[in-house]
Amino acid sequence: MPETRQEDSGAGWVPHGFQLEPHLHTDGQLVYAAFGAFATTTDRGTWVAPANRVTWTPPGFRHSHRFYGRTDVRLVVIPAALCAALLPYPSVFAVSALLREALLALTDRAEARPGAYDRLRAVVIDELAVTPEQSLHLPEPHDDRLRTVTDLLHAEPGRNATLTELGRAAGASERTLSRMFHTELGMSFHRWRTILRIHHALVHLAEGRSVTDTAMACGWSNPSSFIEAFTAVVGQTPGRYQADLVASGN
């Protein structure tokens, strides 16, 4: 697929389910949802960004986007010459108050004075350079047996089958699959499934589902265990996340 060059940053509302098919850029790309949520997918896996995260895709990485709920999308282009200050691989960062305002200013209004955009973009780069990566990254496997298991869970994230039960469909033992989750995906089966469920929970919450309904749909046995897992991964409770979405949309 040919590379494309991005000339401008910008903003726009997109509907639920809108997708941008896989493509490349010669510059770096920051995508921020001021309202809503979206997923960025590369050959390294999928990153989900709720309204308190921004995704970073360096030049040359083939990627696609899918948006969940009506989403206020902000796109900021980082020229290739400036990308060395940021991570050399796709990632997700927490959005501080300063970073949010800089992203909004870059995409909300016309440049008031010559060089203003360059100065604001420098602030964004400085903020990202010192912000710890907080990735909602879901790596995807290459091994066919492991992919069989992950495909089953993608299709039904609330499924509570054990790894032994899933292994029967994949033709692999629980021990083999457990080892492969660690060696190929860098995390345990339980952790991978939790991140997958959090991805789906973010979508449900963005669509307006209640915390209880979201917990049940995504496979948690009770709301309290869901709240605990969501808070540990996202950094805020699902109720607070949903309230912030509503406030951002007003």
From TrEMBL:
It comes from Paractinoplanes tereljensis. The chain crosses the membrane at residues 76-99. PROSITE patterns: HTH_ARAC_FAMILY_2. The keyword ATP-binding does not apply. GO terms for molecular function: DNA-binding transcription factor activity; sequence-specific DNA binding. The keyword Cell membrane does not apply. This is HTH-type transcriptional regulator RipA. Signal peptide: none annotated. SUPFAM superfamilies: Homeodomain-like, RmlC-like cupins. Keywords: DNA-binding, Membrane, Repressor, Transcription, Transcription regulation, Transmembrane, Transmembrane helix.
